[in-house]
């Protein structure tokens, strides 16, 4: 009877190790997913905060939102595949409708593009060809100065001088 059970321990160890590795990689993948979702939520919050105090559609808003520098790269250093093209910035009136006349801006909305074709997709660690579409993340904040400093009557954002136009501060130097 002992001779027949000689390889049984090896088989049990292989099955146990396979189960343990599956659980371990599952925990790692879920942790990455939670990190990415929290990161995307912070991207919208950070983008809305910067958009509320910078001139209309300033180029630094999207870069700072993805944790790049104001004049830095258009890709996030912390989340693979996230670029400034997936960050949507909208200026809203008091009713929450997008504006054509930016002088009536009351709110700023920043969201992540969730379009299945063009939106942000998170690649899985083990199955790189499989991606998950990001759920909608949106942050809306009241507009503040939008780059205008009444003390100096100038428009500035991240040391970039703007000008005061008919619609308020614009991002042109």
Brief characterization of the structure:
The protein is α+β, with helices and mostly antiparallel strands and about 170 residues long. It has helices spanning about 10-55, 60-65, and strands at about 85-90, 105-110, 120-125, 130-135, 140, 150, 155, 160-165, 170.
Structure description:
It is a single chain. The chain has 173 residues and is α+β, with helices and mostly antiparallel strands. It has one domain (3-145). It has helices spanning 8-53, 59-65, and strands at 87-92, 107-112, 121-123, 131-133, 138-142, 148-149, 154-157, 160-165, 168-170. A four-stranded antiparallel beta sheet has the order 6-7-8-9, with no helix packed on it. A three-stranded antiparallel beta sheet has the order 1-2-5. It has a two-stranded antiparallel sheet with strand order 3-4. Strand 7 (154-157) and strand 8 (160-165) form a beta hairpin. The radius of gyration is 24 Å and the shape is elongated.
